[in-house]
Amino acid sequence: MTTKMRSEIAEQPAALRDTLDALLPRVDEVRRLAGQTRHLLFVARGTSDNAAVYGRYLIEARAGRMCALGAPSIATTYRRRVDLDGVLAVGLSQSGRTEEIVETLDWAKSCGAKTVAITNGGPASPLAEVADLALCTLAGEEKAVPATKTYTTQLAALAVLALGVGADVNADDLQRVPDAVEKLIDDPGDLSAVVEGLVGKPGVVVSGRGFAFSTALELALKLKEACYLHAMGLSYADLLHGPIAVVDEDTPAILVAAGEGPTLPGTVALAERVTGAGASAFGVGGGTSLAAAATAALNGPDLPEWVAPMGLIVPGQLLTEALARRLGIDPDAPRGLNKVTQTD
User: Per its UniProt record, what PROSITE patterns does this chain match (predicted)?
Assistant: First the structure.
């Protein structure tokens, strides 16, 4: 039986093509709005917050603009005013109906910010309606509770946003993403070995750095949601500052990296340190160097670092779905979760 989650993972190449076709022609709209601002503030929760981490690294590293991850409770719980003149506030919500995010984006506008919505909910969703500009992804309806195609299309929308704020990247790289994702779906690497390596383990540390940090956070969240693992998502810089002590025979590490870039050598060195201490290190991406240092490895995309996260998460999604089934869990409907989460 094919799960809804597995079917929606397979829909990602088409969803990415449709989203990029719709949003790339709108770069000039982003440019006009962003030209009135200096800094960016991302407003999101859950999976969308992990997507925002990608947006922050991309825009700070490639566009030279300061970014921050907003705390919605400042608006919704503490109800404080903040001077947001010169800020581009970006609200992310797959449904566009999360009341906390809608309220916070509206609050940001009232505090002087220009506002952008990134949502799969369509132009009539509350989030899109409250924003100055809505970048609506075209993932189609997502029935499984764990987000897959809505996450990767959010990353695509953030890449378009980055182009609009002046990122020094080759926009043509985006056209390579759907084919790279399709290839990973067909050949994710040694999936069965990684699944068996996690069976019976109470927890796992998922680590990456830089652009791959968003993938580590999102994969950790998926393993929590769908497999009920105590999964900790960390930058490897933070992991080395103490939490690495939790990595042992019962707590393996999943290490994520693009196939190029300045964080790859450190990820490989961390894999060597983990395996040298007698624990398992499972690689995701990182090319042949990370695979050689790991206990077992999943493939990564043949993409430049700045777009690699759109592909890097895909083997992790496949891992989550396969591990959940191996554990006797329905990945489409994890306990205690709904598709749209409203925060008090």
Answer: SIS
- pLDDT digits 0-9 by tens, 26-64: 999 999 999 999 999 999 999 999 999 999 999 999 999
339: annotated active-site residue: yes
Query: Cα separation of 62 and 210, whole Å?
Result: 12
Tracing tokens 């075209």 back to the chain, one arrives at 138
Q: Are strands 67-69 and 39-43 parallel, antiparallel or unpaired?
A: parallel
| Beta carbons within 10 angstroms of residue 223's beta carbon | 26
Contact 334, 226 (CB under 8 A): yes
Read off the tokens for 132: 């100055």
Among 109, 183, 201, 339, which one carries the catalytic annotation? 339
Q: What percent of the chain has pLDDT over 70?
A: 96
Task: Report how far residue 152's alpha carbon sits from residue 314's, in angstroms, rounded to the nearest whole number.
Answer: 9
CATH architecture assignment, domain 182-326: 3-Layer(aba) Sandwich (3.40)
**CATH (residue range 4-169):** 3.40.50.10490
| Residue whose tokens read 């020094």 | 168
H/E element holding 203? strand 203-208
CATH topology identical between 4-169 and 182-326: yes
* In 165-190, alpha helices (H): 177-186
